[in-house]
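Pilot study result, target chain (736 residues):
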Amino acid sequence: MECFKILVCGDTSCQITLDALQGLKGEFEIVGLLARETKVNQQCAQYYKIKLYSNVAELPNDIQLAMITSSVINTPPEASAELVEKLLEHGLHVLQEQPVNYEDIIRWMKIARKNHLCYAVGNPLVYLSSLAAFGNCMAMLTKQTKITHIDIDLDIGIVYSIIHLLIDSLPQTRMFTIKSQTSVSNENSIVNGELGGIPFLFRIRSRCSPESGLLFPQLHRLTIGTCNGNLSVTGLAGTIAWEQYMIMPYDNTPFQKSEQYSYSFDSPCTTIRNSKKMNFREFISQEWAEAIKTELSKMREKIFTNRQDAASAQREILCAKNWNLLAQEINTTETTKKVIYRACNPYYLKQAVQQFISEDSRQEITIKDYCETLDKEYLLHCLEKRDQTILQTMLHVFQQNGLFLSNEAEHDTAEILTALKAAPEQVHVILRWLKVLCQRRYLKNADGKYIGTQRISEEQLKSKWDQVTYLWNYRLGSPLTTEYLLNNINSLPELISGQQKATLLLFPEGRTDYANSLYKETLILKYFNYIIAKKVISIGKQKGVFQKSAQQKLNILEIGAGTGATTETVFYHLSQTPYLNCVTYMFTDLSTFFLREAKRQFSANLPISYQLVNIDRSLSKQGIESGSADIIIAVGVLNNAQNTDSTVADLLDTLADNGWLFVVETVTEVLDMLVSQAFMMEHREDVRKDDNTTFLSTRQWRTVFQTAGAKEIVMEYPKDNHPLNLLGQKLFIVKK
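Predicted structure:
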C-alpha cells in the first residue's frame, strides 16, 4: 500500500498529533510541520526529524494531505480561513480539526470539489475505542427503551465531538434548541435544551493554564438516561456502566417471592466495559494513535475512491450548526489567569476508603496501587529537580559566607570551615557537601583548593523551592515532610555552627508530627513495613509456632523502633489472624522518649515489652540473651551505628539458628538528608570513615552481612528494575 504523506499544521499543541503519527510509520508518513518559525517549533521539527515550513508556497508537491490541528484553529478566524483556502488552492486535501463554523464547511467543501480534492473536519475523539463503544451501546439502547434525558459534564474542547457522537448514535437529532444558559464563572457554563426532543444538560468547563500549557480536553461523564436506568461513560478511556433503577412494587405483593419483580434482584450497577489501565503516555501512543489512524484511513479511502458522501457531509454541517448555536450562548474564551494543576496520587484516595474495604482486598489494593501509580520518568524528574535545588542551596550557603563568589576565587578546607563557623561535630557534614558539589560540578577541586562555577541568588532559590514543593507534595510525599526540610534549609547557618540542634527541628516542642511524616507517612516505608509484616506471619507458619500444639512462641526483637511505624503495621496484621498470642515482641530504642510514647500508643493487651538499647554496645550485656530472637527488625537504625560490622555481627549472635534479620536502610547519598538529619548523625568508624559517606551502598551491605556470618540474603526490596529504587532505600531480608 502506498505511503500517505502528511503535512501537520499547528504550533506546540500539535505535538500530541505528531507523537501519535510517529507510531503509524509504513502507512502514513509525516513529511513536514507548517508553523511559525519560532525556536520552539524549530526544536519540535528537529526532534521529530521533519522539515519546518512557515509558508504554503514553500511546500513540496508530493504532500497529499494537510492536517490542521486545534492550535491553528485558535488563531483568528480570518487567518484560519486563509490557511485552509491556501492549502486547497495548493492542491492539498485538508483534514481540519474541529470545531469549525458550518458556513466555512460549506464554502471549503465547494472549493475542494471544484479542485477535485477532499475537505473534512477532523474529529479523532469519536474514534476512541471507549467513545465508539459507547456510541454503539447508545444506538442499541434506543431500540430497547425510551431515552428520557442526556446529562454531560465535559471540557469546551470536546463539545463538538460529543455533539457529533450524539448525532451519529441517536435516531432523531434534527431539532436542536437551547432553552437557558447560566455562566457559573468565566470557566464554567451550564446549558439546557433539547436534541431531537430529548432534554439535555451540558456542564461545560473551559480550562487552560498559561504556566503549563493547554490541558488535554476531558470528558468527565456522559450519561444517557432512560425509563429503566442510566448508561454512562467516564473519561475518554473510561468505564462504560449501566446503572439499573430499583423499582419498588406499588401494591402489597411480596416482591422477593414474585417473578413479576425478579428485576429487583438485578445488580444496581453493571460494568459494560472496563477502563484500560494505562498512563497518559500510553493513551497518546496507543488509543489516540489508533483513533487518528482510523480517521486517516477513512480520509484516504475518500481521496483514492473520489467518493463524496452527501449524507456524511450533511451530518457534519448539522453538527457544526449545533455547535455554533451552543457556542453563541457560552463564554468560549479560555481563562488567562494563572491556574495550578497539581498531580494527585490516587493512592491517597484509596487510603481514605480503607475502612470500607474488606481486610484482604484492602492490603492488596494498597501495595498494588502504590506500585502502579508510580511513573518512573515523573519520579526521576522530581528527584533531579529536588537534588539540583538542594545542591544550589548548599552552594548558596557558602556564598552567603563570602565563598565562591567568583570563578577565580580559591578556598581550601580550613578557610571554608572557618568562614562557616562550623562546629567540630558538623565538620563531616561540610566535607560531604564539598564532595557531592564537586561530583555534580558545582565546584572544582584543584590541588586541594575549591573553585565555584556559578552564582546562586536568593530569588532563584525561592523559585526553585516553590517548584520542588509543587512537584513533591501530595504526589510523592506529605506536605509536612517538605515543611520539615524547608525548616532545616532556613536554619542551615545555625545547624552548621551548632547553635541549632537538629533534633529540635525534628521534634519541635516535643511534638512528633514531622517524625511521623518521615517514618509513618512515607510511602516506601509503608511498602517495606507491609512486606515485613506479611513475612513475619509467613515465618511463624513455617516454624509451626502458630499451631495449637506448639510449645514455643515467635520471639521478635525490634531495634531502634522509634515512632513505632513498623511495630504498628506488624501488630495490625497479626491482629487480623488468630496468632496474636503466639508472639512475644520486644520494642527497643535508645531514647526514653520513644519508649514512653510507645507505651502510650500501644494497648496493654498486646504482647509487647519495652527496653532501652544502645546498638553500639553488646546486646547480651544489656540483658538480651544470645540466640533468643527468632526475628530481628531494624528499620533505618543501623546507619546510626558507630561500627556497622560489629553491630550486625552482634545482631546475628542474638538470633536463634535459622533466625531472620530485616534491615531497611538508605543505600545512596540522599541529598535531603545532607541538609537535615545528617546534622544529628555522628562521624562513623567503619568503611564510611574512609569513603566520607553517610550511608553504605547495597554492595557494601551485602559484604557486611557476609562478613558477619549470615547464611544468605534471601530477598532485597525493591527489585533492581523497580522505579522505587530511585528513592535510594532497600529492605534486606537476611537469614542466619
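One observation from the pilot: The two ends are 66 Å apart (CA to CA). A full batch analysis is planned for the follow-on phase.
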